[in-house]
Design brief:
The protein is mainly beta. It contains two helices and 17 strands. The protein has one domain.
Length: 308
């Protein structure tokens, strides 16, 4: 092979290389795509109350038990507007317990008090009984003045811890206490055994002692005076044997909501905002043990916190 031909081959190879360069290696992008996520939460109205039990031991008569907290959580997915609270004292304390030495004759719910949330930051915060029964005394109370009501038929003592206040019921039509003719009166002065402290009046009870409403079993009165039953409700049973003191029971059967003072423990339609999902409120409770309560275990009672 001569030199000219060899040079021709080399030049041809160079020309081909310039015309068809070797492809350079390129970086490849990783594959990707997107997924659209949608989640729909179902509508559930639910609350959780913690703790699920409370107990007090060795509470002295004439004292208040230590105050404890109840936490109410909105564990549902909807706003909670209103919450009521009541105890089943009426189912537990079914007979007059006075005169005996058995603490179990008394309902533990009958001594349970709770602070209204609207009072939580007040310097004069008020506790209310959640469902207390006071029974007809059955015996005469001397040095009394029963002129506040016609046909007085039942009387007794409203007791908190160290003080007693005399109350009085006048029966309604046909001797029963579940109609609009029933009258209720109570003393503002604690009982000293004198005529002055045993003269119940109807002032600021409904309208001059006239009830707010009545049904087949109860007559309902709103009481707006004196520190220990201010803004409370008093229901008088049909056979005049007992009165029932409460504040936050809005049940309609029996029609405890018929009392003008009956309110919700939490009312998102009023001064407060609805309780949003995940939010909590805290309520303070305490047992108030009156003088003259027998030693021992009171009957267990259930406190129901209900979102409505």
């Amino acid at each position: 092979m001569n030199e000219k031909f060899l040079l021709f081959i080399v030049l041809l190879a160079i020309a081909v290389a310039l015309m068809f360069p070797v492809a350079s290696k390129k970086a490849l992008a990783a594959p990707n795509d997107t997924v659209t996520i949608d989640v729909n939460v179902s509508s559930v109205s639910q609350i959780t109350v913690l703790p699920d039990s409370l107990s007090w031991t060795l509470v002295d008569a004439g004292t208040e038990g230590i105050h404890k907290n109840i936490t109410i959580k909105n564990t549902g997915s909807l706003n909670i507007t209103q919450i009521q609270g009541y105890v089943n004292t009426l189912d537990v304390e079914t007979a007059i317990p006075y005169g005996g030495s058995d603490a179990a004759a008394y309902s533990s719910g009958g001594v349970l008090t709770i602070m209204n949330r609207t009072d939580a930051n007040d310097t004069d915060a008020q506790y209310f009984f959640l469902g207390r029964i006071e029974w007809n005394w059955t015996q005469d109370i001397p040095n009394h003045n029963w002129t506040a009501v016609a046909s007085p038929v039942a009387w007794g003592y409203f007791r908190n811890t160290t003080k007693d206040y005399v109350w009085l019921v006048g029966n309604g039509t046909n001797g029963y206490c579940n109609n609009s003719n029933t009258r209720f009166a109570i003393e503002d002065d604690y009982d000293l055994g004198t005529l002055a402290t045993r003269t119940p009046t109807t002032t600021n009870i409904g309208t001059a002692g006239v009830p707010d409403a009545s049904d087949a079993n109860w007559t309902y009165f709103s009481v707006t005076r004196a520190p220990f039953y201010n803004r409370s409700c008093v229901a008088v049973y049909k056979d005049c044997s007992k009165i029932y003191i409460y504040a936050f029971d809005k049940r309609t059967y029996p029609d405890f909501a018929a009392c003008g003072n009956s309110v919700y423990l939490y009312d998102g339609s009023g001064d407060e905002n609805p309780l949003a999902p995940g939010s909590t409120i805290i309520l303070k409770v305490s047992p108030w043990i009156a003088y003259g309560t027998p030693a021992g275990d009171m009957s267990t009672t259930t406190l129901t916190i209900e979102a409505v």
